[in-house]
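Q: Entry one of two.
A:
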Amino acid sequence: MVGLTHAGLTVEEFRDAGYLPSALLNALALLGWGPEDDREILTLDELVAEFGVERVNASPATFDAKKLEWMNGEHIRAMPIAELVAAVLPFAVDR
C-alpha cells in the first residue's frame, strides 16, 4: 500500500492504491460512530443493521491512515478467493 501522507485523496486514489471499497466504507463509518460492542471490522450489512444516530459522537473525528491499512488487510483476508482474484485482476493486467 502507498502511504497516505495528506488529506484530500479521492476515492479513485484510494482504489488505485489497492484499498477495497468495503474497507474504506468501514473506516469512514467509524469516524464519529461505533457499534455497541466496539467491533472495528464490519460489513456493509452489519453497518446498516447496527447504525443508530444515538451512538454518533459529537467530538471531531480524525482519519487514521494506519487503521485504514489494517482494516483493508482484514477485509482482504475475509474475501472469498474468487472475489479476491476478481478484485486484483485489473491491477495485474494494467501493470
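Q: Entry two of two.
A:
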Amino acid sequence: MANVHHFKVRTAQGNLLELGQFRDKVLLIVNTASRCGFTPQYQDLEKLYQQYHAQGLEILAFPCNQFGGQEPGSDGDIQQFCQLNYGVSFPVMAKINVNGPEADPLFEYLKDQARGLMKTRAIKWNFTKFLVNKDGVVVKRYAPRTRPGQFIDAIETELALLPAAER
C-alpha cells in the first residue's frame, strides 16, 4: 500500500469506510480505550477536532482492548461512552486489534511507517497517535503520554499545506 488512503476500515455500525475520502485532509489516527488512565485525552481530541476540523483536520479513533482489557464494551457501548462522557463528535470506529496476528492492516502499515521509542514497531499502550498529512503519508507517531495539545504546531504546519479550497 502506497499510503493511508489505500485502506478501508470498519465503522462502529459495521460499514466499510474508505480512507481515500480523506485525501487533502490531515488525519490524526488514535487507538483508544474507555477505561484507561489516558481516556481523558478524548476531551483533548474533541477540543482539537472542534478547533481545527473546519480547517481540514479529521480525527479517527480506533478502540482497542489489547492493553489491560481497558476497552471491554461492544461498539455500541463505546459509542455511548464517548458521547455521554466526552461529547465526542469525531468518528469512533469499530473495535480492533493493533498488535499481533489479528492486527488491523491499517495499524500494521502505521507501525511500519512510524516507529516508537527506540525504533520499536509494536504499539505499547492505548492512545498512541499517528499524524498523517494530506497525501496520506505518516508524518509522526506520538506516545500515549503525549497529550494532543502538545503537538498543535505539527498539526497547524500540516493544515497550512492544504490547498486553500480544502480549508
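A: Comment on entry two: The mean pLDDT is 94. The two ends are 27 Å apart (CA to CA).
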